[in-house]
Structures are given as C-alpha cells and as structure tokens.
Design goal:
The protein is of the alpha+beta class. The chain has three domains: about 150 residues, Glycosyltransferase (Alpha/alpha barrel), CATH 1.50.10; about 120 residues; about 260 residues, Beta-galactosidase, Chain A, domain 5 (Distorted Sandwich). The chain contains 17 helices and 22 strands. The strands form five sheets. Strands 9-10-11-12-19-16-15-14 form an eight-stranded antiparallel β-sheet, with no helix packed on it. A five-stranded antiparallel β-sheet has the order 3-4-5-6-7, covered by helices on one side. The longest helix has 26 residues. InterPro entries: Chondroitin_lyas (IPR008929), Hepar_II_III_C (IPR012480), Hepar_II_III_N (IPR031680), HepC (IPR054646). Keywords: Lyase, Periplasm, Signal. It is found in: Periplasm. This is Heparinase.
Length: about 650
C-alpha cells in the first residue's frame, strides 16, 4: 500500500494542479472591467457581459482577437505559415515539452521537474534564476506549433503558462518576488508574450477561459511595470519600450493609452540623459549601447506600423542615427567590437543583421548602408582615426577594410554597474586578428563564489593599463590632447587612478603602422607600479630580460611588444584568461612590467607595439626629457628614428 501511495502521489499532485489551473482559467472574469468594451468590434462582447454571461463574453472576445485586423505585430502574423525554427530553437521547444528549460546560454538546460519547480536554482548565479522567468523556450514552442501544426506545443504552452501564474503570485515570498517579479523580467514577458499570443491564438488549446487568464496576467504585468520602473540605465529603457509595446499591441485595455504615453515619455527623456552628444550610451558597454539602439528603434517601429505617428521629436531619431554612427566607429572590420566592461564577443552575423535593420530606418545614410552591405555598397566615413570625446572612446585606424589596423582605447568618465575599472585599456586589431582582447566579464552576479569569479575579470590588473599595488583604479579620465594627421595620430589623457597617483598615458599611432605608448605614474603615492598587457590566446615568445614578447601565429600575422622602463624594472609573466562568452574562459599569456615607486618621482614606461610579418625589427626607445607638462622621447625602428612626445604648456 505504501509503495502504491508513493507512486500515486506525484500523479495526484499533477491532477490537483491541473484542476487548480482549470479553475483559475474558468473563474478569471475580472479582466472585463479592464477592457474598453465600447471599442469597435467589441459589441458582442459587451452585450454578453451586460447579461453576465461571462462564458459567452469570453467566447466573443476570443472571436474578436482572432478576427482583429487593425493591430500589427512587428515580427509575427496571427495566421499563415512560419518557417521551421533552426536546430537550436527547435531543441529549446522540444526540451521545453519535457520541462527541460533553457534559462541561460551560459548553462546547459536543466530539468525543473514533472511538477515544475519555478524556484529551482541549480547554480547560485542570479542571472540563471532571473532569466528562467523570461521563458526563452515559449517562443520556439510557438514557432514549432505554427510550422508543424502539432498541438502538443500549444497544450504545453498553455499548461505551463497557467502553472506559472498559479505558482508565482506577487507576494509569494520576498525571495521569489526578487526573481520572478523584477521589472526587467516582467517587461521581457510583456514583450515576448505578444509574439506568443500571435503564434498560439488559433490553437484549440487557446480557449476562451485561457484568454481571460492570459489577459488578466498581462494586465497585472503591465500595470506593475508602470508603478515599479527601474531607476536608471538600460533596464529602464527596456521597460519603457516594452510598455509602449503593451499599450500599442493591446489597445483594448482601458489603460493602454496611458501605458503607451508612460513609455514614450520615459524614452523621450532618457535618450537625452543616457546618450552622450557623441552618440555613446552612458554605460559604456558596447553590447548595451547596441541594445539601447534596438530599444529606441523598436519603439519607433511598433508605433509606425500601427499608425501612431509623431510621438517622438525629430531629435529622437537623429540621436538614434548618431548612436549607430558610433557603432561604425568602434566596430572592427570583422564586425566584432571591444569587450570593454560587460560586453561579450559579437558574431559577425549578429552585428550585420543589426546594421541591415538600421539601414531600413535610415535608408539615406551611406555609411550605415556600407556596413549593412558587408562593405559592398554605400561609402565608409571620409575620416579614419576619430575620438568619441564625451564617452572617452578613442579610435586609431588606417582604413575600413578587413586588412586594416585599428586600436580602440577607453579613457572614460565614470559609468556604473556594467562598467569596469579599466581606463587606459585597449584592443588592437591588425589584419583580421585582435591581438589584445579585453578580459571580458565571464559572469554577472550571484553568491560569494560567483562574485569572486566576476570580480577576477573586472579587476584593473587584467586589463591593458597601469596599476598601483595591483589594486583597482578609480575611473574619471580627462583628455589633454587629441590630434590626427597623415603621419601621426596622438592622444594624451590622465586618470586619477589612486589616491596620490595619477596615470597619464600618451598614445602615438606612427605612420599609420605601429603604436608607441608612454605611461607615467605621477604623484607622491608609493608602492609597486605595474604596466599590464594581455595577449590573444595562442603562442607567444618572451624575453624577460629584454622586456619583450612576440606572438607566434603561423600565418605570419604577429605583433612584437617591447617595453622600455625609464627606471629599474622587471618583466614577469602573469596568469590570465579571456572570456568571450558567458561562463567560458580560455588561458592566455599576459605580462607585466613592474617598478617600485619609493617617492614622489614619476615612473615612466615606453611601450612599442609593432606588427610583424617576417623578421622582427630591432627597437630602441628612451625618454629624452620630461617634466610635469611635457615629455619627449626617441624611438628607433631598425635605422629609422622618430621623435615623439607632448607639450601641455599653453
């Protein structure tokens, strides 16, 4: 008997839950009070509602939505064939049928139980639990349903949808509210469920009773967002844009116009706050910069396709265009971009797709057209090196084609959470290879073990910059000089990195071919000054006594880095990693040039980075003269000498 009960209890639990879900769907008629029943097309709904025949009202409401023609979705039509999803998306859908849910691309999908445990937290990474509540497998289920007509996908979606409502009410617990009801996750559901609505609307599983539960839940979500917006940053942008979507896609709600107005107001305000005049989004993490562009464009798109015009001033669209132009500046010719802050390695297909979408919004911009066509149409910018001065991003380049040389350096004002303490760091692309990739971010946040992993990749000493005692720097760079010419591009900036120590860095792009960097540690602070460089994963050869290291790629596309300290110093190899994707890391060679600062005398280093296609050149470099406002140096490459330096005196 005991064995029978043990075997029967899980089935009983499932049956009871199914009954609970059925009652939830049947009894949820309060949503009618949130609908504008005087809207054109809702006459039969209103008539049944006035008679208190709520079932018939729900039947008529479902018929209304299935016949609705005046509301348009930017991606999914409610009828018609859709293509079979790709292998990756298909797997998400098929796994989802078995409650094996894809919650985060940094982890393999986990089984959440026959009786779904929405509070399961397999790894104490906050993102894993937050993103579970974005239900990344539901849209693939919709695609599979429409592509195959198999009702199992619609039945699974409606069942899981009601299950989530039943098990995640607001106020269930402080812990659950933190993850299931964070405004960013709510806004994701508000956006994604418009597509799910389109995919499943004509399924027999999408019953009138389910429609009432869906609309009630959707209203709760949208209403929650407008009263709990995030304080700032990309979260606020996402939430505002998605509430614009809610108010536009479901105009039947009485509050729809207010939702839409709320989101539009925030976007109009925040585009002036979050975007610098040079076009950079103020978090200074390029993946979030691009996300912000998509947010601003998506709000424009859904309003335009639904005939809601003139909600944004001309300056709004001009700012979005300026943001896209910033992407053309900081992107490498292979359609990747630096992994500064919390950015990850972009795939060419992803950025190319973005440019193609942007080209539709700005068809007359020849530079955007150039990037959207894989450099086949349109025109590149007329300039080469350029400074995005407000955000502190400096670009040195000698061309716009894949064989170009290009350095992107960060010397920025303070940002916030997604930014890292890394002023002075850079990435250097030469002829298709990024020789000095940023360490990346690896992971976001979670328990103590997860935060330890995150903080390792954030720390200053794993970036291409200068440290004091390997501590993290303060970020607040000041540009002192910037100039470009056919023979020399030059940047001088300084950053108050530590109490009593300012890091001044001057960068020289000589003959549009090689780089010279002069670093100065200025102030009365004492301790171990170190200059760090992290190479691309792959072989390097180092001569620690000669202060140099060379990459050893077999295709003859390499670089030589050699440092010339102006004081006693040592060169050491450091443990280092690079993380191109979430929770993935690879070892790489990194080196530091260390010098002990005992007093208020400045410490200075000259670093030469030279491309090597055959035999490496002989390099010499030395400081000729220096004081608090000027530096002059001589750099010799084989027999060719170059006089470099700066003078800050007026």
């Amino acid at each position: 008997m005991a064995r029978f009960l043990k075997a029967f209890l899980p089935l009983l639990t499932v049956l009871l839950l199914a009954g609970q879900q059925h009652l939830l769907a049947q009894s949820d008629t309060s949503v009618f009070s949130q609908l504008d029943l005087d809207r054109k097309g809702m006459e039969k709904v209103k008539a049944s509602w006035l008679k208190k025949d709520y079932h018939q009202a729900a039947v008529q409401l479902l018929a209304y939505y299935r016949q609705r023609k005046d509301v348009h979705h930017p991606e999914v039509e409610a009828t018609g064939a859709v293509p079979m999803p790709n292998t990756e998306e298909r797997k998400k859908a098929e796994d989802g049928l078995r409650h094996v849910f894809f919650a985060h691309k940094g982890y393999t999908p986990y089984f959440y139980g026959d009786d779904i445990n929405w509070q399961l937290w397999p790894v104490k990474d906050n993102e894993l639990r937050w993103q579970l509540h974005r239900m990344y497998w539901w849209e693939p289920m919709g695609q599979m349903y429409r592509a195959t007509g198999e009702e199992q996908y619609a039945k699974a979606w409606t069942s899981q949808y009601l299950d989530w409502i039943a098990k995640n009410p607001i106020g269930l617990s402080e812990d659950n509210d933190r993850f299931a009801w964070r405004p960013l996750e709510i806004s994701h559901r508000v956006e994604s469920q418009t597509a799910q609505f389109q995919y499943f609307l004509h399924s027999p599983a999408f019953t009138p009773e389910f429609l009432l539960a869906f609309l009630r839940n959707y209203y709760t979500h949208a209403d929650y967002i407008v009263h709990h917006y995030s304080e700032k940053g990309n979260h606020l942008l996402f939430e505002a844009q998605r509430i614009v979507t809610a108010g536009t896609f479901f105009p039947e709600f009485r509050d729809a116009a207010a939702w839409r107005a709320s989101g539009i107001s925030i976007l109009n305000k925040e585009i002036g706050i979050q975007v610098y005049p040079d076009g950079l989004q103020f978090e200074l993490s390029f993946n979030y910069h691009i996300a912000a562009i998509q947010i601003f464009c998506r709000a424009l798109e859904i309003l335009q396709i639904n005939g809601v015009e003139d909600q944004f001033p001309a300056s709004y669209k001009a700012t979005v265009e300026n943001m896209i132009m910033a992407v053309t500046e900081f992107s490498f010719p292979d359609y990747t971009y630096p992994m500064f802050s919390d950015a990850k390695l972009e795939k060419k297909s992803g950025l190319l797709k973005s440019f193609r979408g942007w080209a539709k919004v700005f068809p007359n911009n020849e530079v955007i057209r150039y990037f959207a066509s894989d450099f086949k149409k349109g025109n590149p910018p007329a300039h080469q090196s350029n400074a995005l001065k407000d955000g502190g991003i400096y670009i040195f380049r000698n061309g716009w084609t894949p064989d170009a040389t290009m350095m992107v350096l960060k010397a920025s004002p303070p940002a916030f959470w997604h930014s890292q303490p890394d002023n002075g760091t850079f990435e250097l692309y030469i002829n298709g290879r990024n020789f000095f990739p940023d360490a990346g971010c690896y992971v976001y946040g979670g328990d103590e073990a997860v935060m330890k992993e995150r903080n390792w990749f954030r720390q200053t000493r794993v970036h291409n910059t200068l440290t004091l005692n390997n501590a993290d720097m303060e970020v607040n760079a000041k540009r002192l000089q910037w100039s470009t010419s056919p023979k020399l591009d030059q940047l001088v900036y300084e950053n108050p990195s530590y109490k009593g120590l300012t890091h001044r860095r001057s960068v020289y792009f000589v003959d549009k071919r090689f780089f010279v960097i002069i670093d100065e540690a200025i102030g009365d602070a004492t301790g171990e000054v170190a200059l760090h460089y992290g190479f691309k994963e792959g072989p390097t050869t180092a001569d620690l006594k000669a202060f140099k290291a060379t990459t050893d790629f077999t295709d003859h596309n390499n670089v030589l880095l050699q440092c010339f300290p102006a004081q006693a110093a040592t060169m050491v190899k450091e443990d280092s990693y690079v993380s191109y994707q979430y929770r993935q890391k690879e070892p790489r060679d990194a080196y530091a040039f260390q010098s002990t600062k005992k007093d208020n005398k400045p410490q200075r280093f000259i670093t030469v980075i030279y491309p090597v296609t055959g035999k490496a050149p002989a390099i010499k470099a030395a400081i000729k003269a220096a004081d608090e406002s000027c530096v002059s140096a001589t750099v010799t490459i084989d027999q060719q000498s170059y006089e470099l330096g700066y003078n800050l005196k007026p």
